[in-house]
Amino acid sequence: MGSVNYQTIRLSKGKHRSPEDGACVMELASMLAGEQFTDHPVAVCPVIGAFLRSYNDSIDDRRRQDLYAYASRVVGSRASLGVERARAERLTAWTQERRPPRRTRWLMPGRLRAFAPDPPVHILGARAVQALPAHDDQTHAEVLALVEELLDLRRRSRPSSVGPTARPERPERPERLRALR
Q1: How far apart are CA 83 and CA 78, in angstroms?
Q2: Distance from the CA of 66 to the CA of which of 3, 26, 73, 109 falls in 20 to 30 A?
Q3: pTM of the model
Q4: Higher-pLDDT residue of 177, 9
Q5: Looking at residue 159, what is its pLDDT?
Q6: What is the C-alpha to C-alpha distance for residues 70 and 74, in angstroms, rounded to an integer?
Q7: Helix, strand or coil for residue 159?
Q8: Which residues 6+ apart lie within 8 Å of 34 measured at CB?
Q9: How many Cβ atoms are within 10 Å of 108's Cβ, its own excluded?
Q10: What is the C-alpha separation between 28 and 11, in angstroms, rounded?
Q11: Can you give the C-alpha Rg of the chain in angstroms?
Q12: Confidence label for 100 from pLDDT (cuts 50, 70 and 90)
């Protein structure tokens, strides 16, 4: 068998030692970003990464292959702490919409929540996946729409003026990333 690369790899469940063993959606993202093979690529927002890692491991193989394009889409999604916090808040709200209200430390409403520490992002991702009512095509479409919404939070937060506080535009994506869209 020839060497495995981002074009030939098949997404699978779990963490892998190398591309020859397979890859999850975040490991593929690390390959596309030109990073060391890892399921925590630096170029990906930690909130989105945690959610996609958990979702990758919870769905069947057919739906998992749909995540191939999202490995490309999330490269370069790491953003400011404010954007990351907004994404975490949206993921928490999305989770609450799908599960009955519970009084847990990380879901406390209002001022009481100020006393509870923010949960680690890997917990947010896992809880969001646990809240899914089913793993059917409708839920899958809702998950993919949520990922798009989380990515869009950065696009909407970018300042329109050019100046010292404006974020530079993201550089042109390498050819291998454009080909996946």
Answers
A1: 9
A2: 3
A3: 0.75
A4: 9
A5: 45
A6: 6
A7: coil
A8: 174
A9: 13
A10: 8
A11: 17
A12: low
- Give the ranges where the chain is alpha helix by DSSP (H): 25-32, 46-58, 61-64, 68-73, 81-98, 121-130, 137-157, 175-178
Q: 21 vs 24, 129, 133, 176, 180, CA distance in Å?
A: 10, 25, 31, 21, 22
Measured CA to CA, the distance from residue 158 to residue 181 in angstroms comes to 22
Whether residue 147 is predicted with pLDDT greater than 50 in this model: the reply is: yes
Cβ neighbours around 120 below 10 Å, total = 12
Give the confidence band of 35 by pLDDT, cuts at 50, 70, 90. Answer: very high
Structure tokens, 152: 């869009």
Cα-Cα-Cα-Cα dihedral of 94, 139, 76, 124, to 10°?
A: 40
- Reference 55, options 31, 74, 81, 77; nearest CA is 74
Q: How many other C-beta atoms are found inside a 10 Å radius of the C-beta of residue 164?
A: 4
Tokens 């680690």 found at = 120
- pLDDT at residue 19, rounded to an integer: 85
Residue with more model confidence, 113 or 22: 22
Contact 54, 129 (CB under 8 A): yes
In this structure, what token pair is assigned to residue 65? 């292959």
**Cβ proximity of 125 and 40 under 8 Å:** no
Q: Is 44 helix (H, G, I), strand (E, B) or coil?
A: coil
